[in-house]
Every structure is written in structure tokens, then in C-alpha cells.
Amino acid sequence: MSEQVTSPVLSAGVDEAGLLGLAHGYHQRPTRLLKTTELGGQLAKVYAIEAPGRSVDIGGSEHALHLAALQLAADRETGALGLAFVMLHAGGDGDYVLVHSWVEGYMSRLAVFNGPMDSPASLRPASRGLAPCVWEAHVIAHEREAFVRHVLDADGPLYARIAAWSDDVLTVQATGGTR
Q1: CA pair distance 101, 47, nearest whole angstrom
Q2: What is the pTM assigned to this prediction?
Q3: Taking Cα atoms as reference points, which of 76, 131, 132 lies closest to residue 104?
């Protein structure tokens, strides 16, 4: 006798067409470390995330990095612990700069900016409520694990822990388009 497989009933609130459309169009975006440097008094890993046909040029991102340094300096004055990461995302619908600091009490602070990275007059704080997308959240998840593994949960002198954290970077290769 064969088993009959039944599919679960989806909640009325689930947008089946929308979710399947996202799944159909999903692809990995190249993600790489551009550099680890001091910005705004914090040691920061600077990542690039690139949508198809887009690229992040570190030379063309000077204003974005200047803005990130200002944010990191402000975070430092309000309790940041000196380790951070920045994402320069050349997205499909525009440019995004995300600035993340580790702060006291196991907390973090995140600032999101959008607009052309190379245009000082146009890169502004993102609209209220805007949160990281799936590609940015991938970097955040990696960096959370690296911070816990190498800094909080490790043994040894702090300089060795920070060196290990600094060396632990996320690299994602493009998957060649949508599946």
C-alpha cells in the first residue's frame, strides 16, 4: 500500500505567488571584503555586495566610507566597543551603505543609508523602518558568528581574538543568475 502525501494548507496570509516569484528570481550576489581599516575610531571590515551588472569600486566609494566613519565615530561616543563592519551594496534598485557597530550589553547598532554612493549630496539615511535585505542579512549573520566565536567565546589575549575576528570574512561567489 502506498502512502498518500498531503501538502499542508497555507495560511490565508501567505502570498504564495509573491514568495514563489522571489524564489524563482533569487541568486547569490558576489560578496567580498574590500578591506579592514580604522573608520571613525573603530576597526571595521568593509564588504562589497554586488547585484548583477553592478559593482562596488572602493575608489568611487570615498563618500560612503566618509559617511560610515562619521557614523562609527558617533557610535563610539555612545558606547560602541571598537569593532564594526560596513556593507557597500550596489543593489538592483540602488546603492545602500549599512554601518554596524558592536555596543555594550551584547547589543549592536545599525545605520542604513541609501542613494548613490559616489554622490555626497544624495546619500542619506534610509527611510524609517527599512531593514537589511537577504544579502545584507547574510553578512550580518556571518559577522555575528565571527564576533561570538573569536571575541566573546574564545580564550587567549584580546589582540589574538581580534586578529582572528579580522581574518574571518565572508566571501560569496555569484551563482550565475537565477535558478
Answers
A1: 14
A2: 0.91
A3: 76
